[in-house]
Amino acid sequence: MATKKKAAKKPVAKKKVAAKRKPNAAFMKPMTPSAGLAAVIGAGPMPRTEVTKKIWAYIKKNGLQDKKNRRNINADDKLKPIFNGKAQVSMFDMTKLVSKHLK
Question: Nearest Cα to 39, choosing from 55, 53, 52?
């Protein structure tokens, strides 16, 4: 009668618990928008993260993303003063231009 060998159990790797990220204080500091930016997102002070969310909500609501290149935003009458009069800006340039309108 042959004896069967038991398969050695592989050690189970312990899952690391991800540490919660703390929000960066600079991004969470309430900023006051300029009059032109306030026409798009509202006049109350809000953190930069919320400003970006509201601008994107405005862009999507009004269909201002370029149809061919979705990274470009077409400015309407409210966004042109924020974009320094440019008719179209990239989403990467948008944050730089918007930051000039926050105090």
Answer: 55
The whole-model pTM stands at: 0.73
3-state secondary structure of 58: helix
20 residue type, one letter: K
The band of 28, judged by pLDDT with boundaries at 50, 70 and 90, is: confident
| Structural domains in the chain, sorted by start | 29-99 (1.10.245.10)
Q: What is the pLDDT of residues 36-66, one digit of tens each?
A: 999 999 999 999 999 999 999 999 999 999 9
- Report the distance separating Cα 91 and Cα 72, nearest Å: 6
Query: Which long-range contacts link 2-8 to residues 24+ away (Cβ below 8 Å)?
Result: none
Average pLDDT of the chain is 87
Residue 81 and residue 35 in contact, taking contact as beta carbons nearer than 8 Å: no
